[in-house]
Amino acid sequence: MRAAVLVDANEALRVTDVGLDRPGPKEVLVKMAAAGVCHSDWHVMQGDLPVPLPAILGHEGAGVVEEVGEEVTRVKPGDHVVLSWIPSCGHCFYCLKGRPDMCDEAFNIQLSGSLPGNVMRLHWDEGPLHHYLGTSCFAEKTVVPDTGVIPIDPAIALNKAALVGCAVTTGFGAVVHTAHVAPGDSVTVIGCGGVGLNVIQTARLAGADPIIAIDANGKKSELAKTFGATHFIDATQSDDLITPVIDLTKGIGTDFAFEVIGREETIEAAYGMVRKAGMAVIIGVAPPHMDVSFNAFSFPSQSKILTGSWYGQSVPAVDIPRILGLYQRGRLNLDDLVTQSYSLEHINDAFQALIQGTVARGVIEF
Ligand code: APR
Ligand code: ZN
Ligand code: ZN
């Protein structure tokens, strides 16, 4: 089958023929229909997020189940599924605590570049070929843990559903689960890419007002407003992002700031623009060794909450169908997220478009 392999950081993806074994007892073979091009994969391609290489990237996908292992009961061949990149184990400390987003086993899968039990189902002529986040969906087919497939209504177009595998759930959950935004709360979103636009549209759904979008690409203004932003700040116009947000929030500061890029200056700005006792939520994935600094006196004296949100703190088996239901009833917009489709052979063009910011989300369609 054809797949896009990252051999080494700072190289283009190599679209080539690879081998895929049949699924083990608790695994599922999925024929991919669509895979979104997310910035987290670009972080890996840049060497900013170390994972075992060579690997098949792609963690935002949807497709149709082709074969299931003998112990699989969650899905059957023919089911339409969204892949979850946190195939939570259900029995570690965090799963039992109701925080599957922090599942130890899912983190181990990420670090080992394999499936649960250190199993590898991928291979090619040049030696070992790693899995990535238990998904590896930049390939015509993939084998994933049964905990990593979420069955969905087959009436939903799979190129829209794919985005719920990462960008939509990450943005939605950050607003709903991490921040608990309420009607009339002011929300500021720094970074209006595929994930940030979903923070914006979920903030609108939650009744936030104003919703201030910030991006260094002026072309994101119109997109941000389509998804619900009431104001747009072009980050290239000034080094100071804090003052305009304080001005737009009656001199108080924003109730919630979401950082959706992963840069030092924007993380610090997110904390700085939040009002006393407000909340800054960091979604952007920074390189593992990057540090940020905050004024220590401000912690007690301003009592701001500074937190992160990983996969929107979601429970994928509950949240993915919930989000798709909101889409089917016109409450969430997935249609305007898919701005460009690419074949797998042109996947490197899709990453260039992501970096140039010419798309809301590019999608590989198989
Ligand atoms: N200031 C303001 N905006 C910026 C800056 C900056 N210094 N740098 C980049 N941006 C904007 C880009 O113009 C783009 O619109 O951030 C946005 C990033 O969007 P995408 O590239 O589409 O990335 P996305 O897939 O949304 O991921 C964003 O969330 O989940 C994490 O790993 C992911 O760190 C990444 C972040
Ligand atoms: Zn992602
Ligand atoms: Zn677990």
Automatic annotation (TrEMBL):
Entry keyword annotation includes Secreted: no
UniProt keyword annotations, A-Z: Metal-binding, NAD, Oxidoreductase, Zinc
SMART domains: PKS_ER
Gene Ontology CC annotations of this record: cytosol
Residues of the Enoyl reductase (ER) domain: 8-364
Secretion signal span: none
Name assigned to this protein: Alcohol dehydrogenase
